């Protein structure tokens, strides 16, 4: 019987091809784990991990083989980010955002096949989409920059960065407040809005080279969350981008999103897998410590005390809760044919994201209590994870917002059922 791979703890029904890809992930875990504590202490993304992941072929994990990638799917990505999350959550998070870039290639191509673009638009859309995929497959690291510090009451992400036409291309101005691999990625795949547009149809996408004139790094990010993600964000001041490095067809962004199976661009659950992998590692480490250490007077394992038994039970329930939500969402977003219509899959994710991240945080909180003062060290596994997983409570949206939106979807649908058109007598 073959040894169980780390990714199989989440995706436990891997095909032969999926397992082969997961073995590539497994091969990099020792190096990621060895660098995790120092990277966290220094708040520095381990730059050597770029070459490590590139040489393993993992920068093209979810790129179709016809474009030079490994041909993986969301199942592969979830297993990979989970496995990396058990070793170095910071690298796992940055790797997740690199892979979200693939949606800017895959979804436009699906939209072309679905007939959502005109004959004149198709060559431009196809060229940009294929450039995204071939660059990733060749080992180019892409940082996906969408989020900004600007907020609105009606959207989770508000885009204020502007793009205006100039000779031979476009000029970008704005600031991106959140995006892993700042100063690390080869290109920042940047979302902006066309000057003069104030709806989602004006959202457009650009390849912004890391060293392009006018691109600068924001102040170092020193907050709750994963410290070694190079999450500083960027400023764009009069940054020129050539025409061929952009997809600026009005409405292209919204048309591509129609092809997503569920959450936003269809891969957001893989970020929740990062948190779940981190929580699983904490669980494993703490259980090993509590069963190995003994009470001086009785010789019994510390894990045998009633208080620790209660905490271990709580940890187990919360961890299993995270797995259940995550596996259900993964099934809904990858099953063929689809099990549920898109609106139901989307609603499930709005509930699931918060449920997974809150459960993972509770695992670490219980582990912190069970470890006592010896576990209250920021350089330790529990201390780092307590801060790392706090970010999951607010990233993209908190659980409360997801539940509110899900409730609104349910009640509005029910309200519509209460009204009918009667035949006139």
TrEMBL record:
Keywords: Flavoprotein, FMN, Monooxygenase, Nucleotide-binding, Oxidoreductase. GO terms for cellular component: cytoplasm. InterPro entries: Acyl-CoA_DH_C, Acyl-CoA_Oxase/DH_mid-dom, Acyl-CoA_Oxase/DH_mid-dom_sf, AcylCo_DH-like_C, AcylCoA_DH/ox_N, AcylCoA_DH/ox_N_sf, AcylCoA_DH/oxidase_NM_dom_sf. Residues 147-239 form the Acyl-CoA oxidase/dehydrogenase middle domain. Gene3D superfamilies: Acyl-CoA dehydrogenase/oxidase, N-terminal domain, Butyryl-CoA Dehydrogenase, subunit A, domain 2, Butyryl-CoA Dehydrogenase, subunit A, domain 3. It comes from the Bacteria. Pfam families: Acyl-CoA_dh_2 (PF08028), Acyl-CoA_dh_M (PF02770), Acyl-CoA_dh_N (PF02771). Belongs to the DszC flavin monooxygenase family. It catalyses: dibenzothiophene 5-oxide + FMNH2 + O2 = dibenzothiophene 5,5-dioxide + FMN + H2O + H(+); dibenzothiophene + FMNH2 + O2 = dibenzothiophene 5-oxide + FMN + H2O + H(+); dibenzothiophene + 2 FMNH2 + 2 O2 = dibenzothiophene 5,5-dioxide + 2 FMN + 2 H2O + 2 H(+). The keyword Oxidoreductase applies. Coiled coil: none annotated. GO terms for molecular function: acyl-CoA dehydrogenase activity; flavin adenine dinucleotide binding; monooxygenase activity. It comes from Nonomuraea zeae. It is found in: Cytoplasm. This is Dibenzothiophene monooxygenase. Its main location: cytoplasm. CDD domains: ACAD. Residues 269-390 form the Acyl-CoA dehydrogenase C-terminal domain. Pathway: Sulfur metabolism; dibenzothiophene degradation. Its EC number is 1.14.14.21. Residues 32-103 form the Acyl-CoA dehydrogenase/oxidase N-terminal domain.
């Amino acid at each position: 019987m073959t040894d169980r791979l780390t990714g199989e703890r989440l995706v436990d029904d891997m095909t032969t091809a999926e397992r082969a890809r997961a073995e590539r992930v497994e091969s990099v875990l020792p190096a990621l784990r060895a660098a995790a504590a120092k990277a966290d202490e220094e708040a520095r993304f381990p730059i050597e991990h770029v070459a490590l992941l590139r040489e393993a072929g993992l920068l093209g994990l979810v790129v179709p083989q016809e474009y030079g990638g490994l041909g993986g799917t969301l199942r592969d990505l979830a297993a990979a980010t989970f496995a990396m999350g058990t070793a170095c959550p910071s690298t796992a998070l940055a790797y997740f955002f690199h892979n979200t870039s693939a949606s800017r290639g895959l979804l436009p191509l699906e939209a072309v096949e679905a007939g959502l673009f005109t004959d004149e638009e198709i060559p431009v859309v196809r060229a940009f989409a294929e450039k995204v995929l071939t660059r990733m497959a060749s080992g180019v690291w892409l940082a996906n920059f969408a989020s900004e510090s600007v907020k609105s009451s009606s959207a989770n992400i508000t885009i204020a960065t502007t793009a205006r036409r100039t000779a031979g291309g476009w000029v970008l101005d704005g600031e991106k407040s959140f995006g892993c691999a700042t100063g690390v990625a080869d290109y920042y795949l940047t979302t902006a809005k066309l000057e003069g547009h104030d709806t989602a149809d004006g959202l457009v996408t650009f390849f912004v080279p890391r060293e392009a004139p006018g691109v600068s790094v924001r102040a170092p990010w020193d907050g709750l969350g994963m410290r070694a993600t190079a999450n500083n964000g960027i400023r764009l001041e009069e940054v020129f981008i050539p025409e061929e490095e952009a997809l600026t067809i009005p409405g292209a962004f919204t048309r591509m999103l129609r092809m997503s199976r569920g959450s936003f661009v269809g891969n957001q659950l893989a970020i929740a897998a990062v948190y779940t992998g981190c929580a699983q590692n904490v669980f494993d480490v703490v259980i090993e410590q509590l069963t190995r250490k003994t009470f001086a007077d009785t010789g019994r394992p510390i894990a045998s005390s009633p208080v620790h038994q209660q905490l271990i039970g709580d940890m187990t329930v919360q961890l299993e809760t995270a797995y259940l939500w995550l596996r259900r969402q993964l099934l809904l977003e990858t099953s063929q044919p689809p099990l549920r219509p898109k609106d139901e899959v989307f609603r499930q994710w709005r509930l699931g994201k918060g449920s997974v991240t809150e459960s993972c945080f509770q695992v670490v909180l219980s582990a912190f209590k069970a470890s006592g003062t010896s576990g209250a060290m920021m350089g330790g596994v529990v201390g780092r994870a307590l801060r790392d997983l706090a970010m999951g409570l607010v990233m993209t949206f908190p659980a409360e917002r997801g539940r509110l939106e899900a409730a609104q979807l349910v009640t509005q649908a029910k309200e519509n059922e209460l009204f009918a058109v009667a035949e006139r007598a």
